[in-house]
Design goal:
CATH topology of the largest domain in chain A: MetI-like fold
Low-confidence stretches of chain B: 10-20
Helix content of chain B: 40-55%
Number of domains of chain A: 2
Largest sheet of chain B: 7 strands, mixed
CATH superfamily of the largest domain in chain A: MetI-like
Distance between the termini of chain B: 76 Å
Number of helices of chain B: 19
Order of helices and strands of chain A: HHHHHHHHHHHHHHH
CATH class of the largest domain in chain A: Mainly Alpha
Structural class of chain B: alpha/beta
CATH topology of the largest domain in chain B: D-Maltodextrin-Binding Protein, domain 2
Shape of chain B: globular
Largest sheet of chain A: none
Helix content of chain A: over 70%
Structural class of chain A: mainly alpha
Number of helices of chain A: 15
CATH architecture of the largest domain in chain A: Orthogonal Bundle
Oligomer: heterodimer
Low-confidence stretches of chain A: 1-24
Radius of gyration of chain A: 27 Å
């Protein structure tokens, strides 16, 4: 909405604004408030260009969110039923032990995944920022895992963590015969295997964002701090890391929804096993909806996931938007 | 002038040529994508082309057919169903309830197919008074596959009860062989569980538990005992069973690294592909039961209602191709199963298939012919899912048998 008056009052923005005749025209047109066909088109062009994507987003995202919400209140099993049974599906969902496991796993996974990825990523970024030799090469090395899909990561780590094929076997063959690393076979530890693989994949990404943030910090600030007699750890802890706040926010938001929608990694690495120990809300939703004829329960779990995402994204958007308002 | 004549002539010729060879297309969705499955399907489609129709293949592989079902949902929602689709378990019956499948009564009665099928099979191809699908094959699920050399070396004969089987496993363990090759995927474990369930307690108890979902049977002492036996079977498994594919487990038996595998007869193809011979290099015998039983899994094709006479005629030709005795025979020789029709001779099939055929005849008359739970031929998916959750968890954790029974009862009640 705000763009329209700008467009009219600033003929320079006009694609054909180079010709002074036309800009005059616009001025007249505004005054007379009857626009020629061409000007009308110019006026409507941004709306026209935006509207298909607006419709696509509205139908593809918001309409289907509403539809899923509706289905979650119905008795749908194999195919959608448009009746109303209240919160029955939500009651059934929370009475399913597998859903409890999935939710607990989501919290364990998200907490560990975020903490480890951010701290390791930040540490690498700070070390790389010390003008080390071959920095470009090292940066590429750390970033490469990100180029892989989670399916590849999951499959590779499935073999690395398998006690008969991977780390355990190699260490035992090297001579430490009592070495045991069989977490992936043990339901109580298997979720940590998913954390290991996810951290391996995403650390480079966190590093890249932090590195970009570090490069954006003015050197004179650091110099000023040094003149004041602050040591290097103190400079990092009290000045540089707090200045990375925008980078932290981006990393946290991006990583947390990677963890909420983590589906392919779990499927490839453990297939939600052993014994559903690594079930995630996303894998639960898929199997309820598409494999177990429990479309209502699946929709209820999808709504729960949406609420979790909203709980993270809405405060973030709110704080970001408030900040931009304050700046103006 | 000359060019236009030529063009006109070629245009008028084209449809004529096509008409002579091709009466139309029959489009089908299925999830047969492995080599032997594709070759087996070709037997049916070749028959179809002799009837003048071309097969339009819409294979959707992956996730035991879950992807194909999603494709079907989309096609139905768009009002553009395929001519035919492969169904497992209750899928065909569920779609028939939605009213999208053709009734095949006329085809069945004119061709006498109703008399060619085992009565227990009808539960999956008929709903109410209507026949709704065409079964092509029958797999038997409750098989034990064993390496003959390993068995001979350890001095083990075919076990006659689960206690004997577990004892044989202990012997194999002492001989330094992995007794039972299995993966930790819940469905592989569920196959063992349901075998114990029916073998120890008999077909009637199985029906009460997994078909009627009778609460008193589900929470009975017999169920605790079934879990106790499953716990003993757990002791026969090696540590590397995480994420092991069933075919990899079959490979362990074939190479002699493991002694046995409990799996449906799709495992047979893995042995045959390695050039091994039944009875000579590997053994096949049913899971040891007091009352012999036969657990079946069938693939069947349904025909969708489409308002187009040409497509309907093509569907009829497809139905006749599937139910052709010669097609059923050649298809199943490649697929490793036995014909769904009970009246097809299996004389030139291998020893395992012949045993399967004979056992089926016995089970049909004794009433011990049962649908496999794992593959969706006993309980509806939402209940079968609870069995697989509980049994899968029990196998990999140290959950007690009593807790497992309680979890099963609670889970089933929650899914009702």
């Amino acid at each position: 909405m705000r763009a329209d008056p700008d467009l009219i009052s600033q003929p320079g923005c006009h694609p054909a604004g180079a010709s002074s005749g036309i800009s005059e025209n616009i001025g007249n047109a505004v005054m007379r408030s009857t626009l020629s066909l061409k000007d009308r088109f110019t006026l409507w062009l941004p709306r026209l260009v935006l509207s298909p994507s607006l419709v696509a987003v509205f139908v593809g995202v918001y309409l289907f969110i509403a539809w899923t919400g509706w289905i979650s209140l119905s008795s749908s099993k194999m195919v959608p039923q448009y009746d109303f049974v209240g919160l029955e599906q939500y009651v059934r969902l929370w009475a399913t032990p597998r859903w409890g496991t999935a939710v607990a796993n989501l919290f364990v996974f998200t907490a560990l995944f975020l903490t480890i990825t951010i701290s390791v990523g930040l540490a690498i970024a700070i070390l790389l920022d010390q003008r080390v030799r071959a920095e470009g090469f090292l940066r590429a090395v750390y970033l490469y895992p990100m180029a892989l899909s989670f399916i590849v990561t999951g499959t590779a780590w499935k073999w690395i963590l398998n006690p008969d094929l991977g780390v355990e076997k190699v260490v035992q063959e090297l001579g430490w015969s009592s070495f045991v690393f069989d977490w992936i076979t043990r339901p109580e530890y298997a979720i940590y295997c998913v954390v290991i693989a996810a951290v391996w994949q995403s650390t480079g990404f966190a590093m890249a964002i932090f590195l970009a943030g570090l490069r954006g910090i003015d050197n004179s600030i650091i110099k000023a701090a040094q003149i004041e007699g602050a040591g290097l750890p103190r400079i990092y802890l009290s000045i540089i890391v707090p200045m990375l706040r925008p980078a932290f926010l981006s990393v946290i938001v991006l990583l947390s929804y990677i963890s909420i929608k983590s589906f392919d990694l779990v499927l490839a690495l453990t297939n939600a096993g052993p014994g559903n120990a690594t079930e995630m809300p996303s894998t639960f939703m898929f199997s309820a909806t598409f494999r177990r004829n429990q479309m209502g329960v699946g929709a209820a779990s999808a709504m729960m996931m949406l609420m979790t995402v909203a709980a993270i994204i809405v405060p973030y958007l709110y704080s970001e938007l408030r900040e931009t308002r304050n700046e103006h | 002038m000359k060019l236009t004549t030529l063009l006109a002539a070629s245009i008028s010729l084209l449809p004529a040529v096509a008409m002579a060879e091709d009466k139309g297309k029959v489009e089908g969705i299925h999830h047969w994508v492995s080599e032997s499955e594709v070759n087996a399907l070709k037997v049916i489609t070749d028959k179809l082309s002799t009837k003048g129709y071309t097969w339009q293949d819409s294979a959707v592989g992956g996730l035991s057919g879950a992807n194909a079902l999603q494709a079907l949902r989309t096609r139905l929602a768009a009002g553009n169903p395929p001519a035919t689709m492969q169904f497992l378990g209750y899928e065909g019956l569920d779609w028939a309830k939605e009213g999208v499948l053709r009734s095949l009564n006329e085809l069945y009665t004119t061709n006498g197919w109703d008399k060619a099928l085992a009565p227990q099979l009808l539960a999956f191809v008929k709903t109410g008074d209507d026949y709704i699908s065409l079964p092509i094959n029958m797999h038997r699920q409750n098989w034990v596959w064993a390496n003959k050399a390993v068995f001979d070396k350890a001095g083990i004969a075919e076990p006659k009860s689960w206690d004997e089987l577990i004892a044989a496993g202990d012997k194999l363990k002492q001989a330094g062989v992995v007794p039972l090759a299995i993966g930790d995927e819940p469905w592989q474990i569920l196959e063992v569980f349901e075998a114990i369930l029916v073998d120890v307690n008999g077909p009637d108890f199985y029906k009460k538990v997994v078909i009627d979902l009778d609460e008193s049977a589900l929470s009975s002492e017999q169920m605790v005992d079934v879990f106790d036996k499953l716990r003993k079977v757990r002791g026969l498994v090696d540590d590397g069973f995480t994420g092991r594919d069933w075919a990899v487990a079959t490979g362990m038996v074939a190479s002699g690294k493991a002694g046995m595998q409990i799996m449906g007869d799709w495992a047979k193809g893995e042995f045959l592909a390695k050039g091994m011979k039944p009875g000579v290099d590997f053994l096949c015998f049913p899971t040891p039961a007091a009352t012999p039983n036969y657990k079946f899994v069938i693939d069947a094709f349904g025909l969708f209602k489409i308002d187009d006479a040409a497509i309907t005629a093509g569907q009829d030709a497809w139905a006749e191709s599937i139910m052709d005795p010669e097609v059923q025979k050649n298809f199943n020789k490649i697929k490793g199963s036995i014909p769904a029709r009970s009246d097809v001779s299996v004389e030139d099939f291998d020893a395992c298939a012949q045993r399967s055929f004979a056992d089926r005849e016995a089970a049909v008359s004794s009433g011990a012919m049962l649908g496999g739970l794992t593959e969706g031929f006993a309980a509806q998916p939402q209940f079968a899912g609870v069995f697989s959750d509980v049994v899968g968890k029990f196998f990999v954790t140290d959950m007690s048998s009593n807790d497992a029974v309680q979890a099963l009862v609670d889970g089933i009640n929650n899914a009702r």
